[in-house]
């Protein structure tokens, strides 16, 4: 599954973007897509606050406030493939910079033909970018609903329960069938096992309290340490 989010205060343009994204996504990919499009900043901010997975984003650079919103988004989603929507009233210097790093640009005024061309190029560029070394950048969950690509940097832990493995990313979980032993073999080195039921991302650790057999992680998550993994966790 590919997750795409958009923020555009021009309702007609947003509706056109959504229609064209659906068309181009169906034409260019066989993936399942999740599309969340917003015309109001409060609704967009509430959506992002829940830490959804975001692979692609289209955001309006309307004045300094719009640029600042994109920069805040970028701080949270550094790996998302980004399209900036702007017009001549905003200097390119405002959004063509390292803190934003757009992968595509839609210049207003733009009609359906221009939007379709930009969106098609945007999707193709994303597919090309993620198609190279895909397994090195993301964990792929296979399910009946399709494939979900979870960037390793967003993963807090893997948990074994209910005869399945669940990967935790932000506030979302994705279940799949595997074994913890196999995951230990294939996951990048930043992932460490701390319990028979948990493999954690050491980059998400805030502190390890061995006296409590507990790992405190980002986002308020708490994970247990089992006795057999205490020595390993001293070095985490």
TrEMBL record:
GO terms for molecular function: DNA binding; phosphorelay response regulator activity. Residues 139-236 form the HTH LytTR-type domain. It holds the Pfam family LytTR. The keyword DNA-binding applies. Keywords: DNA-binding. InterPro entries: LytR-like, LytTR_DNA-bd_dom. The keyword DNA-binding applies. This is LytTR family transcriptional regulator DNA-binding domain-containing protein. It comes from Candidatus Scybalocola faecigallinarum.
